[in-house]
Amino acid sequence: MTAPSDTPPAPQAAKPAGLLQECGLTRPRPAFTTWPPDAHLALALLLAIPVWAALGLLVGPRMYAPVGWVAWASFVLVQPLAEELVFRGILHGQVLRLTTHHGQPCRLGPVTLANVLITVAFVALHLRAQPLAWALAVAAPSLVLGHLRERMGSVWPPVLAHMVYNAGFGLTALLAASVT
Question: What pTM was computed for the model?
C-alpha cells in the first residue's frame, strides 16, 4: 500500500473540440423546443418587426422584393442557410477558436473579436450586390446573428433568425410596393 501523494494529479489535456461543434453544427442550447424560448433569440426576432415597419415607411419602394417562387425560395431559404453555414458556422467557429486565449474569447467591449471580424466580412460580401448604405445596414443584424451563434453554441438559431429577417424584409418590400 502506498501513501497518498501531496502533489495533485496532472491535469489531462483538454480534448480539442470536434469540427462539427467548432462549426456550430450541433443542437442549440437551449433547444428550440424549450419553453419559454431563449430570451435573446425571442428578442432578436421580435425587434425585427419595428425595423421592418421603419424600413417600409422610410425606404418603401426602393426595397428589393423577390419576384416568383424561385426568388422567394432563394431569398428566404437558400441564401440564409448558405450564408450562415459559411459565416456563422465555418468562419465564425474558426475565428473564435483562433481569438480565444485562456478559454475566453477576445472582446471589443461586449462583442467578441470573432463576431466583429465576421461582420466585416459579411458586410463586404453584401457590397458586391448592394450599394454601400444597404451593405452597411446588414452590420447590426450580423452582430446579432453572431451573438446568437456564440450564446446558443449552434449555427441553427442564426439560420432561423436570418430566414425570418429575410422573409420579413421581402414581405415589407412587397407591401410597400403594393401601397405605392
Answer: 0.85
